[in-house]
Amino acid sequence: MKRTLALLVGLVLTALFGLVGPGAAVAAPAGDVTVAASPDCSGTGSWGKIRYQVCQRWNCDPTHCYHRGYLGLINTATSARTVEWWMVHQVAGNPTEWRDGRESVRLEAGQQKTIFTDPTYRESCGITVTRKLWIQYDSAGWSPPLSVTSPMPCV
Questions:
Q1: pTM of the prediction?
Q2: From CA 80, how far away is CA 92, in angstroms rounded?
Q3: How far apart are alpha carbons 20 and 35 in whole angstroms?
Q4: Mind listing the pLDDT tens digit for each residue in 14-57?
């Protein structure tokens, strides 16, 4: 039963984060402009009955990169849970962690949700960005952070 559930959750996560996520290819503008774009995601974490993942979508041109975080949550419990999440990002070489968002969301039993943070950030290209995500629900306290790191090259 546990193996079947784990396989099912794995398939759902693959579909949720791999196929319908915001990682669809970004169309390059017409002309001789080159653009690099990618969604990058952490592995999937578990915090009690909640599965969670942190991702970032970015695209770069020859001078700038634009990046935005998003997260996925799945409630594997048989009852509803209110989940609070907190996401930050940091550019390598800069000690400041920027807050992407902190909110609460109610998930019904078995519900999965993708949440996009605001805003989209604009930086000089040639950077590396790390995003971290923590969650909590009920009185479980905060989860260990999940993180994803993406080099964002000039192209």
A1: 0.77
A2: 38
A3: 22
A4: 333 333 333 333 333 444 555 677 899 999 999 999 999 999 99
Distance in angstroms (rounded) separating the CA atoms of residues 137 and 49: 9
Q: Helices (H), strands (E): how many in the chain?
A: 1, 10
Give the SS3 label for residue 121: strand
As a dihedral over the C-alpha atoms of residue 72, residue 129, residue 146, residue 111, rounded to 10 degrees, the angle is: 0
Amino acid at 127: I
Alpha-carbon distances, residue 94 vs 56, 67, 128, 153 (angstroms): 18, 16, 10, 17
Q: Which residues contact 5 (CB under 8 A, 6 or more apart)?
A: 76
Q: CB-based burial of residue 150 (10 Å sphere; 0-12 exposed, 13-18 middle, 19+ buried)?
A: buried
